[in-house]
Amino acid sequence: MIVCAAVIGQQNNPLYLQTLQQETNESSLRFHYVVHCSLDAVEERMMNPIKSTGEPSDAYLGLLYPTEEFKIYGYASNTRVKFILVVDEVMPKDEEMRLIFRRFHAAFIDAISNPFYTVNMPITSPGFDASVKTIMTTV
């Protein structure tokens, strides 16, 4: 089950963070910390993509790192916007995670295509929020 979804901007600024656990300052801060710590792994994977000969690099970065409680997965767009998902319980298959990240990325594109959205500002769209919650709960 996905317990946290985050979008991180080009300058590593948080654009969006959603958790499914009951919101308290402690849990919110905890997930901000987990997501922030994952950025080093994201940057490392983006600089040294793992790919086969002749195969284009993939936006899906895979499992960034596991902790005692969570597994953190990453995805990076061509514009260097990063998507982080924090998963507890069972590790999903890579193909499942790729599909989830594609849906997450598509929801992000829909949200920032709004002419009233300012680039690199936090995403406050109720539609995006609803889409992310749907993605997180339908896994």
Topology:
Blueprint: E1 2-8, E2 14-19, H1 25-47, E3 60-66, E4 71-76, E5 82-87, H2 94-112, H3 126-137
Antiparallel strand pairs: 1-2, 1-5, 3-4, 4-5
Helix pairs in contact: 2-3
Architecture overview:
- By secondary structure, this protein is an alpha+beta fold.
- The protein has a single domain, classed as Beta-Lactamase, CATH 3.30.450.
- It is built from three helices and five strands.
- β4 and β5 form a beta hairpin.
- α2 packs antiparallel against α3.
- It starts with a strand and ends with a helix.
Number of separate domains: 1
Rg from Cα: 14 Å
Task: Give me the count of strands.
Answer: 5
CATH class categorisation? Alpha Beta
> What is the CATH topology assignment?
Beta-Lactamase
Largest sheet at a glance?
5 strands, antiparallel
Number of helices: 3
Seen as an oligomer or otherwise, the chain set is: single chain
Subcellular location: Endoplasmic reticulum; Golgi apparatus, cis-Golgi network; Golgi apparatus
Subunit structure: Part of the multisubunit transport protein particle (TRAPP) complex.
Organism: Coccomyxa viridis
Family: Belongs to the TRAPP small subunits family. Sedlin subfamily.
